Amino acid sequence: MSADSQTSFKSHDFALRAQKKILGQFSSRKTAKVFISDNLSTLLDLLYQLIKSHTQDKKTAEKFVKNIIKLSIKVGLLAQNDQFTDDEIRIANKMAEKFRTIIMTITSFTEVDFSYDRNFLLTSVNQCDEMLMSLVKNHLTDKSKGRIQFVANLLRDPTLLDSSFKKGTPQNEIMKKMVAEINKAIENGEL
């Protein structure tokens, strides 16, 4: 293979970059509602409310949800276009298992009194963060990796976690609604 053919323009690579760029522009909660189910859309809205309630900052909450949407689109595009190696696919599968564990744990912590374990959640979020970074390290830009860190840092906030599972707080009321939507999504096979 000549050096020219190795450095030549590849339409597939360009198309993938263009798709990621274009879909990254469609990261509002309203646009996401067109592409996802009603209860997953409601979950995003509740996440927005949770972060806004915690930070008292609308822009931070919007950025949080937009980053989740952008990252989901980009990782989905990479998977759809078979861009992951076998090792990365194994990482993605482990991350999906860990994510399901976190979802079930959040449900349990919300529904069962005195079961909340902050350290377990922090460890789980850290593990998901590490797996996601490992999955995308060869595929996404530093800007996208920064989005992962932004989301993970908010999810690791001990004050947010504590208030989300403490009875009577505004965050706990939002968390109860989130768990109801999580249960619906599980029943519908969406999570």
Automatic annotation (TrEMBL):
Source organism, top-level taxon: Eukaryota
Organism per entry: Allacma fusca
GO biological process, one term: regulation of apoptotic process
Protein name: Tumor necrosis factor alpha-induced protein 8-like protein
Segments passing through the bilayer: none
Any one Gene Ontology cellular component term annotated for this protein: cytoplasm
A Pfam family: TNFAIP8
